[in-house]
Amino acid sequence: MELGVLLIPILIVVSGAIALVGNAVGRNIGRRRLSLFQLRPRYTAQIVTVITGMLITIVTLIVVLLISSEARVALFRLNAVLRQTHQLEEEIRRQEDRLKQLALGDIAYLGAVRQRVLADVERATDMARENGIGPDGHGDVVVLTPPRASWDDIAHLVDLRETDTVVRLVASQNTLKGEPLTVFVQLFDNRLVYAQGTVLVEGIVDGRQAREVISRELLRLADQSARLARGRVLPPPFTLVTAPAAAQVDIDAHRAAVAKVQRAGRQVLVQVVAPRDVYTVGPLTVSFTVR
Q1: What sections of the protein cross the membrane (predicted)?
Q2: Which of 40, 93, 135, 234 is deepest in the core (most CB within 10 A)?
């Protein structure tokens, strides 16, 4: 029940009772021709009437303040409440502005993701054409499966992920030249696999061997590091999804390592290291350290 439904009748009854008592007192003073402060009886009656009105107001305020905490706030703390309300309204407006900015940022980010996905599809289309792949009846060289899926759906899935994502297009079947390339999509978190300076593999190489033999031994160690990274670093395009990552060796670094091993003229420890951070997307770039 609302407080006013109970409070208003009480105030009416109390005010009426006070007015009734005041009227009775005034009439009694008039009949007896009583005097207050040596005033004439008529003025005394007027004073009693004024006091009665004042009592009505005072009692009304007391009753309201005793019963209603909202009335006490409105009477004594109204300015403070108004200031707090204004501050809350300002904060709500700021929060709404932030939400609008975030929403616009999300839309912009989704648009950027979509453009990046479509750019990858375009690149895959160009590479497929170079390998003899032809368009289907709709002019599409790369066809996404399942049929109800779309590249916008892929962009939305990427947008939902909380980390950098690798989008990989994988041929879903063997494809002959002139046919469209049917693909499905794999999504991977692009995580740090090897930090710069990480030793990937190591082995003993004999510096007394011929230069060609030393070169092959170093490349064998590089290939071994690629096999150990299988499943962690993605293989390059146009290889099987089960293939290991391809280790990339700088030719000058390789020649320098071969020369250092050969100058040692004995068995030395060769470590295959990551010269820079390696992520899931690759490439697996390696170098050599001769101990």
Answers
A1: 6-26, 47-67
A2: 234
